[in-house]
Structures are given as C-alpha cells and as structure tokens.
Amino acid sequence: xxxxxxxxxxxxxxxxxxKHAVALRNLTQLEESKKILKASIMSEYQIGANGKPNSVxxxxxxxxxxxxxxxxxxxxxxxxxxEAELKWQKRTVEINLELIKVxxxxxxxxxxxxxx
Length: 116
Hints:
Number of domains: 1
Strand content: under 5%
Shape: rod-shaped
Mean pLDDT: 90
Structural class: mainly alpha
Low-confidence stretches: none
C-alpha cells in the first residue's frame, strides 16, 4: 500500500512540477512585460491634451491610471496566486513523501529490533 501511495505522490509531484513551471513562466513574463506596457503607455502620453509635452512624472501617473495597466496588474496578481498555490501543493506532496520515508525507516528499524 505504501509503495502505491508513494508512486502516486511521486507522479502527483511530477505533474505539479510541470504546472508550477508554467505558472513561473507566466509570472515572469507578466512581471517583465509590465515594464514594457508602462513604457508604451507613457510614450502615448508624452504630449498632453494641450499640445505641450508632459513631464515624466505626469506620464507615469497617466500610465498607472490607464485601464490596460490596471488589467495587467490584476493578471499579475492572479499569476502570483496560482504560482503560490502550486508551490504549496508541491510542498504538501513533498512532506507526504518524507512521512512515507520516515514511516518506512521506523518499520524497518522495528523489524530489525525484533529480528523479524
């Protein structure tokens, strides 16, 4: 029974590892593209409505207030949540595998102590 459970946990860990890798890739991509999006939006606001150049601070304020940037931040938050959930799911499986090892070691030690 323990052997089957261990194989199941190992298989689960493999699958979670793949999902976690995808989540990390998405998170990294969103973090890096946040800079690109901000720069693109700021460039759109270089010239104000009055035809005069906006300061960099004003461009930055407009970029942060832009719906596209806010949607991107929400997507980034979702990606962080998914990555954290997968990381803890992996950790739970790893703990289960460690428990199996400890139980197996204890069972073997007990058998040895009683000469079984």
